What does this fold into?
Amino acid sequence: MTDATILIVDDEVGFVETMAKRLEKRNMAVLQAFNGDQAMQRLADNPGVQVVILDMKMPGKDGLVVLQEIKDAYPLVEVIMLTGHATVPSAVEGMQFGAFDYLMKPCSFEDLNKKILEAVALKQEHDGEAVEARVSEIAQRMG
Amino acid sequence: MHPEKTTSYDRLTRNIVLTVITVSLAPLILVGGVIFDQFRSIYSEKVYSHLSEVVDKHTTHIDAFLGDKLHEIQYLNTAYSYEQLISGDFLTKTLRGMQLQYGRIFVDLGVIDEDGRQVAYAGPYDLLGADYSEADWYRESRGRDASVSDVFEGLRQSPHFIITINNVTGGKPWTLRATVDFLSFSHMVENIRIGETGFAYILNDGGVFQTKPHEDLGSKLVLTPGETILFAEAQKGVTIRHSHGSDNETYVTVSSPLNGGKWKLVYQQNVTDAFSDMARTEYVVLVIFALGGMGIVAMAVFVARKLVSRCRAMDRESEFMNRQMVETGKLAAIGELAAGIAHEINNPVAIMIEEAGWVSDLMKDEAPPMPSRGEVDRALNQVVTQGRRCKDITHKLLSFARQTDPRVTQVSLPELVREVVELSMQRARYGHVDFSLDMDPTLPTVAASMSELQQVFLNLVNNSIQAMEADGGTLTITCGREGNEAVVVVADTGPGIPAANLGRIFDPFFTTKPVGKGSGLGLSICFGIIHQMGGDIEVESTVGEGTRFTVRLPFPPPVDQQARQQEMHHD
It folds into this structure.
C-alpha cells in the first residue's frame, strides 16, 4: 500500500522523472504526463490518482486550462500548482478555481512532500465525507 | 547640430525674411508709387494753373491800365481842339489836373505838329520845340490812331514810354503825346513775386526788356525755350514752357501777350522753387517710407530669427524625446528579456536541485560505506545550496525586470529600502559611500505598486551615490512616521545642488550630467509616481553640505488596510 497516488504534469521531462523517482522512494505511486492531454488520459486510466502536481507553463494547453478540466471531471482530485515566478498571478487565479496550493519553481523537495501529504489527507477526508454521504443516502433509502 | 542642418535653418530664416519683406513691401511700393504719381500730376497742374492765373490776371490788369491811360489822353484829344491844346499854358494846367486826379503817372504832355516838332509841352523837362521826326516811337506811331511805344530812354536819359494819339485838323495831322512814368508802371510787374526765384517782366516783340528784370536773377540769365506744357485749365493766350537756363537750372516760364500783342508779360521761376512744397512732401514721404521699410526689414529678420530658433529648440527637444523613447523601449525590451531568461533558468535549476536530492536519497538508502561519503554529501549539499542561490537571483531579477507592474499591493517601506540598498551596495563600495539606515520596524505598510516604489528609491539612491562618487560620503536613509504619512528621507553628504537648479530638478529632461550620461527623466518619473500615489517628494540642498530628498506617502485608511492585509495573507 502506497502513501499516495500522484500524477506529475510538466513539459520538463528531466524534472518529472527525477521528481517521480524521489517520490516513489518515499512510498508514493507516481504517474507522469508531459502535457495537458496526456494528463487527462492518465487520470482517465487511473481513477486512484489523489493529487496532481501541475506546471503552469506548458506548450499546448496552459496549466490553468488543464486545472479547470481536471476539476470538472474529477472534482475530488487535489491539484498543486507549480509556477515560475512570472506566473504567480495565474497560480493565484488557479487557487480560485480550486487548486489546493501552489509552489514556486524551483521548489524545495521537503515543501513539496509536505504539501502532497496534506493534500492526500484532505482528499481522504473528502472521500470519507463522500462515502458517508452515500452511506447515509443508502440508509435513508433503506430506512 | 549637423552643419547641413544649420544651413537648412539659415535657409529657412532667409526664406521667411524674404517672403515677409516681399509681401509687405510690394503693396507698399505699388500703392505708394501710384499715390506719388497722382499727387505729382495733380500738384503740377495746380501749380501751373495758379501761375497761369496770376499771369493772366496781371496781363488783364496791365492791359486795363494801358487802356485807361490811352482813354484819358484820347479824351483830351477829342475834348479839346488843336488850338486849345497849344494855346498858352493849357497843357500845363491839364497836366496838373490829371496829376491831381490820377497821381503822378503822367510825367508830361506834348503836342507835335506834322513835321514832328513839339509845339506845346508841359512837364518837368525843357522839351518845347524838340524834334521827334527821327524818333522811333514817333515814326512808328504814324499812320495809327493811337499807340503805346516801347520803353526807351530817349532824350531825357531815363526809361519811359509814350502814348501817342494822332489827329488831323484842317488837313494838317498833329499828334498828342503823353509820357507815362516808368516807375509806377514797372511796379505793377515787379510786384509779381512768388517764392524765392519767381518774378515777372515784360518783353516787347523784339525780346527787349520793357521792365527792369530782377537784379539778382533775371538780368544775366539766358533761357533756352524747352517743351511747352499743355494742361486743361490753361487761360486763353497763356503759354507755359520749361526752359533751360544758362545756369544749368530748369525754369518754368509763363507768358501772356499784352498791349495788343506788342508786348509779352513773362513770369519766370526756378522749377525747384515752384515745386518746393511738393518736393518737401515727397521728401517727408520718402523718409517715412525708408524708415518704415527699414522697420519692416528689421522686424522680419527679428521675427524670422525668433521663429527659427524656436523651431530649432523644438526640433532638438523632439529629437531628444525620440532618443529617449528608443532608450525607454530598449530598457523595456531588456527587462522583458531578463524576465524570460530568469523564468527559463528556473527549470534547469529545479532539475539540478532535484537530481542532487535524488542522488542524496540514493546514497542514504543504498550506498555501501565508502571513505569519501562525507565529501559526496558535502558536494551534493553544495549543489542544492548553490541552486537555491540561483533561484534567489532569478527571483530578484524577475521582481526588478517587471518594472511596469503597476499593481497596488501592501508594501513595507523598510523592507523595500533594504532591498534597494542591497542592490546598490556594490556600486556604493566602489564610490566609497557608506550607508546609514534608520528604520522604524513598526511602520505600517503603504498601498503602492512595489516595482514603481522600487524604481523611485533606486533612482534616489543611485543619484546620491553618483553625486558622492568623487569623494565618497555617507548616504543616510531614515524611514519613519509623521502623523498619517510614512516619511522616507534619503540624505547624502555630496556636493549639493546649486539653488538655480534646485527648482528645476523635477522638470522632465533637466539634467546636469554630461550628454549621454543622464536622461533627465529619473526624478521627473519619481515625482510622477509619488504624486500619483497621493504622496509628495521634496528636496533641500546646501552646496558643499549635501542634499536631502524627502518622500511622503499616505497610509491607507484603516478599514481598507485591514481588508487588503487579509487579501495579502490569502495570497
Remarks:
- The interface with chain B takes residues 12, 14-15, 18-19, 21-22, 25, 57, 84-87, 92, 104-109 of chain A (CB under 8 Å).
- The CA atoms of residues 19 and 107 of chain A lie 11 Å apart.
